[in-house]
Amino acid sequence: MNAPRIWKSVPALLVCCAVGVAYAKLPPPPPVDPAKAAEAKMKAAEAAKKAAEQLAKAQDRAVERYKKEKGGEAMAAKAASAAPAAKK
After folding, report:
1. What is the spatial distance between Cα 73 and Cα 67, in angstroms, rounded to a whole number?
2. Across residues 34-48, what is the average pLDDT?
3. Contact (CB, 8 A) for 36 and 28
4. Is the dihedral of CA 71, 72, 75, 77 positive or negative?
5. How far apart are the first and last CA of the chain?
6. Which of 17, 19, 28, 62 minimizes the number of CB atoms within 10 Å of its CB?
7. pLDDT score at 18
8. What's the sign of the alpha-carbon dihedral 77, 78, 81, 86?
9. Mind giving me the DSSP string for 32-55?
């Protein structure tokens, strides 16, 4: 490629100009109201707490189902046999 250096930099300059024009047309961000921000933060915290509670309940249900279907009797027998050994 024997193109002069100026022609190699033209596409880069065009991209820079396009980005600059697009950025210049963006409106300024809206002002943040502290009361609304605090309310949104509280709602997010409540939602996170509720999600954590639901996750814990789902995990408990999964453990109970596992114990009931696969390991209930075997786990109880192991625990019963291990308990007297631990007391010695």
Report:
1. 8
2. 94
3. no
4. negative
5. 87
6. 28
7. 82
8. negative
9. PPHHHHHHHHHHHHHHHHHHHHHH
Residue with tokens 């600059």: 20
Kindly report the average pLDDT of the chain as a whole number.
81
| Residue 31 one-letter amino acid | P
Residue 75's contacts (CB-CB under 8 Å, 6 or more residues apart) are 67
Q: Which residue has the tokens 């696969």?
A: 70
- CA angle (65, 70, 75) in 5-degree steps: 100
Residue 11 token pair: 């596409």
pTM of the model: 0.46
User: Taking residues 49-55, what's their average pLDDT?
Assistant: 98
